[in-house]
Amino acid sequence: MSFWEEFLSKLSFGTLITLQLLTVTIPLSVILGILIGILRVYGGRIGKTLANLYVYIFRGFPLLVTLMIMFFGLADIGIRLTPYWAAALAIIICSSAYQSEYVKMSILSIDEGQSLAAKSLGMKRSTEIFYIILPQALRVALPGIGNEIIYMILYSSLAYIVGVNEIFSAAISVNSIWFKPTEVFLVTALIYLAMTTMASYGLKKLEHRLWIPGFETRRKS
Amino acid sequence: MNLMISLSKYLPYIFEGSLWSLGLVLGGLGIGFVIGVMFSLIQVYGSSPLRRLISLYVWFFRGTPLIVQLFLFHWSIFPALGIKSTPLITSITVLGLRSGAYQSQIFRGAIGSIEEKQMLAAKAIGMNDWDAISSIVLPQALRIALPQISNEYSIILKDSAICFILGVMELMTRAKYTAIATGIALIPYLMAGLIYIGLTYIGTKLFDLLYLKMRIPGSVEG
Amino acid sequence: MSGETVLRVKDLYKRYGDRIVLKGVSFEIRKAEVKAIMGPSGTGKTTLLKCIDMLVKPDSGRIWLEDLELTDPRIDIGEARKKIGFVFQEFNLFHHLTAIKNVMIGLTKVKKLPKDEARTIAERALLKVHIERELWDKYPAQLSGGQKQRVAIARALAMEPMIMLYDEPTSALDPQLTGEVLEVIKELAEDGMTSLIVTHEVGFASEIADEIMIMMDGKIIERGDPRKVIHNPRREETRRFFSKILKIGDESR
């Protein structure tokens, strides 16, 4: 096999793994982030404290630390995760902590009148949260959540460190055989650029689709 | 018990990594600041080909993983330029270049938020462009940007952990060596994590102090 | 006056910190009756209305909606609120829902009605407040203030409440838009909707209210027939209050 043949075949395999990792981690981290965000606003004293502690720790730890703990650290106490799941869990945990921040802020940005109006119609707390507050709050949070998704694409490359065969790990393995760092890392960079560019384009589209007249002015105020 | 004793021997060793981590962060933040200010000014006031060039730079550094950038610079770009780099120098440079991309966007936003009216006022009293920018617009923009720079500090601090991939003797590398030497991974990495939290806390508190000092009475920014 | 009592408020107290906002408020409203509450700003009128809908918990005192005691902590307050229509000063339309969806959501999510039935009721409510078909699919931000407030009235109305509470329904509106909202409230009252209205519109209040209650400093200091209370009050404070707002009203028109 020539360099390019080997490189491109390994790289496309790696890209698939990265995409697969992202299809698992992005939705789960967003959902978890929303739940934790809700807990941080409506969770009562215990719920709030626990959720805030979670966020404080996992926003404070670099993703790499969480990743090492998931893969090597948990093994010390008998929990052995596969590289893939150690990486997926670390990314989900870390990212959801950040997501919850956007969710919390956006919930708090919704004016009190919305909640009063919901109550005055006789809505239960859960109805109010899921049908009145969240549909508005998530629109406000969307740019932040989108940014976080871009970060997840970038930081998925750290999965290489625990031995997941994703894009960057393909690059390393090809480079170690052929030692052509310029070609290898430039092409790798281009693939990430393509992914992040497409993702931010898609997110812009989504923001546009979910746009509601009058909402943008509320967000700024 | 023995484990604890052998782990405790490594404690100062891990802690010493803080200095290296902080070195990476301060170096990166400093280089990023210079690049960020320059590039934001070009993006606001520069000619359009220059602006496009900067956009390309920002697009590249924000759209690729740090780990790829580190390898690209260490194994390809620096050697191609004939620079003999060490892991530390590569790390600081790349953190700086990358942070420059982010900081340029922070400053661009800050300048944009005050530029028009302040510039007009400065010109009205007869200042030339450069004086207006350097003595009116920039000082205010820097104040407005400070909370975000503080945020950038905590981001770059956590990013600096990734430099362990090149073997810089910072916190993560030392936690890893400790894990290998003692056969225990959980505690060293937890300790590293807590030190990162501590450094984030101290750093952002210092930025808060700086912000209070730089604040102009009566201004409502931030 | 006839008919059974719809709402009974007895000896209501509410304090915020060391500021006592309500100092023993009591009154009743019978079916199809319209009462207006007037008084200077910051005298607890809004708090009183919010207490009645239990949006603010009173510190003491009791409230009954017919036989149901709202201040009883054991009742399902959501069930009770369904029967009370509340119209806010700032409209508080749900920003993310179109006009008709704003009216429907209480029907589908609280009353659990099927969508098409909810839609029929919502359409009827919107027509009742003179919101025409072409506005039904507009978002709140695309409506004028007067239209927003009428949609908000329709939203409360659609729930078929036993009583409507209006909290200064026109004070967030430009003067030229207040008329259309007051007209709707008047029509509803004439149709027999039991109403409690906090308002600064003297003419409006005297026209539609069976009784005006003057609230000052957390207490109802005077109540009675509108014309008497406005033009020939028993209390000096009431006289001063009306002479002040009538003067301001003259200047602004």
Question: Quick summary of this structure?
Answer:
Chain A is mainly α and about 220 residues long. In chain A, about 85% of the residues lie in helices and about 0% in strands. Chain A has a single domain (about 10-215), classed as MetI-like fold, CATH 1.10.3720.
Give the helix/strand layout:
The complex is a heterotrimer of chains A (221), B (222) and C (253).
Chain A lengths: L2 H40 L1 H17 L2 H14 L6 H27 L2 H9 L4 H31 L11 H12 L2 H29 L5 H6 L1
Chain B lengths: L1 H44 L2 H16 L2 H15 L6 H38 L4 H31 L11 H12 L3 H29 L8
Helix pairs in contact in B: 1-2, 1-4, 1-5, 1-6, 1-7, 2-4, 3-4, 4-5, 5-7, 6-7
Chain C lengths: L4 E12 L2 E12 L3 E5 L6 H8 L7 E6 L2 E2 L7 H6 L1 E4 L11 H11 L5 H14 L16 H13 L5 E5 L7 H16 L4 E4 L3 H7 L2 E6 L2 E6 L1 H6 L4 H17 L1
Helix pairs in contact in C: 3-4, 3-5, 4-5, 5-6
**Number of structural units classed as domains of chain B:** 1
| CATH-level-4 superfamily name of chain B | MetI-like
- End-to-end C-alpha gap of chain B: 50 Å
Helix % of chain C is 25-40%
Q: Residue-averaged pLDDT of chain B, rounded?
A: 92
User: Outline of chain B, from the CA principal axes?
Assistant: flat
User: What is the N-to-C order of secondary-structure elements of chain C (H for helix, E for strand)?
Assistant: EEEHEEHEHHHEHEHEEHH
Show unreliable segments of chain B: none
Helix/strand class of chain B: mainly alpha
Helix proportion range of chain B = over 70%
How does this structure look, described?
The complex is a heterotrimer of chains A (221), B (222) and C (253). Chain A has 221 residues and is mostly helical. Chain A has a single domain, classed as MetI-like fold (Orthogonal Bundle), CATH 1.10.3720. Chain A has 9 helices and no strands. In chain A, α1 packs across α4. Chain A is flat. Chain A starts with a helix and ends with a helix. The C terminus of chain A is likely disordered. Helix content of chain B is 83%, strand content 0%. With 222 residues, chain B is an all-alpha fold. Chain C is of the alpha/beta class and 253 residues long. In chain C, 39% of the residues lie in helices and 25% in strands. The longest helix of chain C is centred in the C-terminal third of the chain and has 17 residues. Chains in contact: A-B, A-C. Chains A and B meet through α2, α3, α6, α7 and α8 of A and α2, α3, α5, α6 and α7 of B.
